[in-house]
């Protein structure tokens, strides 16, 4: 086994351990919260104590804590997430459409800002000291440091309520009854609701990519290979293209990592815009103490982080000419 393969196995083991810690913490915290998922039903008179006891036995909540934990880990490892306590539906049937809704919003936003912000950052870094560089750094840093829910509320007030350019909440109009994903997403009504949360997500991600691209070009600008290209008579834009191409590795690595953590960063965005995504569903499930739903959602998010970190390691080894498959420098 090569050094690089041992490195990947070590990273995999660490990621699995961290995921185990994350799902274990959520298991314990949910059961330490005051009250129970059935408290509201008992208070409203919909269920009596005998029925509650039967339901607890059905979900295994009457068993010792250690057995609940073993059953919980087994269900996660086999991807059998069980049934939602309050919705009386399979957990995956609840989470699947929400997961797709989140991906439809966040992945295009991440790809868009990665491309546009990286290009702008490269150009700003090449023209160091220009007004464009100063303005882009200040504006994107301000947007990135501002909590996403503040930016979202600002956009709703300005563009939804004052200018009335787009709806404030939801993914479709209340009267819309689409059948299937194609009718849901391939419509002007969806696009109308999509504009504001998409714009906020793009702006939220923009600062990181812009600064990474700008710093990469600034670092490469005085390098020897660019002096050679300049001596060959290449234009400024051709030199910029080569400098940008040679500074892509940090951007690709960060994009992969950001893709894995895409749900965690913008949960509040879904909450503010009432976007029916997995982040908003997680918040509602925590409030209702729906154990199977919360546990499955956290596991999906943790698994995404694991896969993204592994993909980043592979990308780094593939694109960086100084890293070989054996873990050492290239010949």
TrEMBL record:
The keyword NADP does not apply. Residues 99-312 form the ABC transmembrane type-1 domain. SUPFAM superfamilies: MetI-like. It comes from the Archaea. Pfam families: BPD_transp_1 (PF00528), BPD_transp_1_N (PF19300). The chain crosses the membrane at residues 12-33, 98-126, 146-163, 184-205, 251-275, 296-319. InterPro entries: BPD_transp_1_N, MetI-like, MetI-like_sf. Keywords: Cell membrane, Membrane, Transmembrane, Transmembrane helix, Transport. It is a multi-pass membrane protein. The keyword Heme does not apply. GO terms for cellular component: plasma membrane. It is found in: Cell membrane. GO terms for biological process: transmembrane transport. Belongs to the binding-protein-dependent transport system permease family. This is Binding-protein-dependent transport systems inner membrane component. It comes from Natrinema gari JCM 14663. The lineage of its organism: Archaea, Methanobacteriati, Methanobacteriota, Stenosarchaea group, Halobacteria.
